[in-house]
Amino acid sequence: MLTVVVGAQLLALLLVLAQPLPPDLWWSRLGMWSLATQWVGLLGTAGLCAARRMLARLPAGVAGACALGWLLLLATCTTLAAAAFGWWPAASDEFPRLLARNLLLTALVGGAVLRILYLAHVARTRERAHDRARLDLLQARMRPHFLFNSLNTIASLTVSDPARAEEVTLALADLLRASLQAGDRLIPLSDELDLCRRYLAMEQLRLGERLAVDWAVAQAPAEARVPPLSLQPLLENAVFHGIEPLPRGGRIAVQVQRTVDGGVEIRIDNPLPASGPSAGLHMALANLRARLAGHFGAAASLLEGTDGERHTVRLCLPWSAGVMP
């Protein structure tokens, strides 16, 4: 609204400066042009905002023609009202020329503004489509990685423990069903935590007592939203790069808490092998960072670090994640 008011006033100022006027008529003519441009600008904006849903269903050319026609109608009504009240210092025979001039100015300025808005809309639509395609690609890369590791787990149990291999297969079916239903939208944090519990239960069938998990998620806010398969890859890394290389296994800790600035912090730490983090871990984190940036921009962060013999990953999400599209 401020842009409309300022732009209309600048237009009125330019129209006055473009005419050679004596000093005693300068301010009165500025007032008349300001009144005309402000009425057309404000009423035009209000009308287009009120009709935006109807215009969105029309083809771009038809919608643009309707919008321009609305502005021309307002310019006609404003000119007629000004002439009726005697605000325009023009004779009756000069009124058609005055009306034609005002309509021409409205068509030129309004058409240019509508064209700029349309080009900006097209650019935003393309940018959103590009971001959505990039998120879809990243999401598609996450699922095969998870699926291949799970199939390797089943293959390792097929000969040694067929009954347990069957349990893992059923658990994998549940996990895939949950992940495929999520799509690329944001899901409740509780659903992601439930998927993580299923995944770790499947891994405990394979690793047995080598894998222990500490859950500290009592403070997890129900209204928080996360991308699907955002925490599960972190736990998968903790298992394959932290627990798997250790002969005695280890313990994974999962903690969810609210931060002082109103966000959500998710912390996952696991034992660190003597060789340190592998390259696959860093690639998975880079993939997840790209997905988080696509959903939340700079408001989300994913940090990692080592503290002695433990590796920690900290995911921070904004509290406004629940309203993201």
Describe this structure in words.
- There is one protein chain.
- The protein folds into two domains: 2-89, no CATH class; 137-323, Histidine kinase-like ATPase, C-terminal domain (Heat Shock Protein 90, 2-Layer Sandwich), CATH 3.30.565.
- It is 65% helix and 13% strand.
- The chain contains nine helices and seven strands.
- The strands form two sheets. The protein has a five-stranded mixed β-sheet. A two-stranded antiparallel ribbon has the order 1-3.
- Strand 4 and strand 5 (264-271) form a beta hairpin.
- Helix 1 (2-17) runs antiparallel to helix 2 and helix 4 runs antiparallel to helix 5 (95-160).
- Residues 321-325 have low confidence and may be disordered.
Name given to the CATH architecture of the largest domain: 2-Layer Sandwich
- The gyration radius over C-alpha positions equals 32 Å
CATH superfamily of the largest domain: Histidine kinase-like ATPase, C-terminal domain
Tally the beta strands.
7
Beta-strand content estimate: 5-15%
**Shape category:** elongated
Total domains, how many? 2
End-to-end CA span: 25 Å
Share of helix among residues? Answer: 55-70%
**CATH C-level name of the largest domain:** Alpha Beta
Q: Describe the strand arrangement of the main beta sheet, using strand numbers.
A: 2-4-5-7-6
Concise overview:
With 325 residues, this protein is of the alpha+beta class.
